[in-house]
Amino acid sequence: MSTQQNNTDKFQAIISHAKEYGFVFQSSEIYDGLSAVYDYGPYGAELKKNIKDYWWKSMTQLHENIVGIDAAIFMHPTTWKASGHIDNFSDPMIDNKDSKKRYRVDHLIEAHADTLPADAAKALLDAMDSLLAAEDFAGLKQLIETNKIVCSVSGTANWTDVRQFNLMFKTEFGAVAAEPGDDNHVYLRPETAQGIFVNFLNVQKTARMKVPFGIAQVGKAFRNEIVARQFIFRMREFEQMEMQFFVRPGTEGEWYQYWKDARLKWHLGLGIDAAKYRYHDHIKLAHYAKEACDIEFEFPIGFKEVEGIHSRSDFDLMQHQTYSRKKQQYFDNDVDPTTGKPYGNYVPYVIETSIGLDRMFLLILSNAYTEEDLSTPEKQDSRVVLKIPAKLAPVKLAVLPLLKKDGLPEIARELMNECKGAFKCFYEEKDAIGKRYRRQDAIGTPFCVTIDHQTKEDGTVTIRHRDSMQQERVPMNSIKAMVLNAIH
RNA sequence: GCGGAAGUAGCUCAUUUGGUAGAGCACAACCUUGCCAAGGUUGGGGUGGCCGGUUCGAGCCCGGUCUUCCGCUCCA
Question: What CATH number labels A395-487?
């Protein structure tokens, strides 16, 4: 219990730190905020962008057979019919007022039907289906009441009204208000994947891709979560980094395994402790999935999903082929050794890797946040330092003249001008040097350079390392190369 | 959505039973300062989450509302 309390405290401390140092603010804070929506501040925006670039580069630059796209957030409404989002994620819900338990209406009625004789059950389910199709919520509530369906916890039939739960945000398309009855609404996409699937042939043909190949995308997605909480872990507006990898049917098993391994390696490549990661294989699979697992990370609030790897079969492309009536086939010229002929036409299978950018941001922040006790017998001392991997740090180098006189600021400015085109730098000349170091620790700057009088004599400076707090004396003209080497 | 707790300066908090708000840190300017927070002087900053009620008078009492946190519920 006490460790759980400590972890909760640590999570609170991270949230406070994120706000105080310009990483994450609550959205619309001056209007009391908007629930489960957050804004990224100056350092947060840098960190987020660095994570995004690191992922993008690992996908589209280090893999010759992966290309990127940037699809619109608005998509044709039929997209979501094909993907299953409209049918699977707009469920009427009802609450029992006594037990406070919430049910999906269809689940509640189906469970009751299981207890009935076959013909009575069929009559009930038929009635339910027609009411669901008509979106007749009052009728559904009446159906529950006339059948005396009770809550399994409280045993009562004290129900709230039936309410619609919509996963997707709906908005109007076109500047002119709709005529009554017009069906001109569009959705804000609840996942970025469909933008990749509907462009499958565009990309394959124009970039001349051969199976197996992947399409990567980073972008915003929107979901009405039932409860949205835990800081930026679960937000209504969030950003995904997704890659859909198209493979020949029959090879999906080995590619699933390949990406499962490859994605964990990507995480570990940031130097994060492997013990904080684990796989979670799904037993119960989504409607489109053949195999699925999560990569989970041990946040202060426990192990939570950061990334999913899913074997999606040919579900999505087949659905789009059906709904659009346009073939989503690929002609494979490779020779099948068992027949001696090309593999020919097929709809590819898909392996998806999908990581939450905001969750990755929280992962980096959680892993980096460190409170250190630096007390000596003479003096109590402590510091808060963000041990962010150097390549992701918002600011790479702080340039600090020891004194703001004697020409030291001028020399520091020379170093700034040399470096600021290559990576993000920060210049500061006020306050004591120790205080400046600690401020840089708090935002995770890996290197601080101090210019002193000796610099004027021999051109050397001290470079101070964030994690060890060690300093070394090096030529000023070697700084840029040192930092570039560390963040490469 | 339900239950519990909380909301006073940028941050952490005080203001004994209702009498028109205070500290430390932070911030800004100047001085001082030779390498790991807390040197000096001066200064800016709050219609006490918001709305309403009781009262001669409300940060404090009452009601509502918003937001956050914890638990439950839900979840690709």
Answer: 3.40.50.800
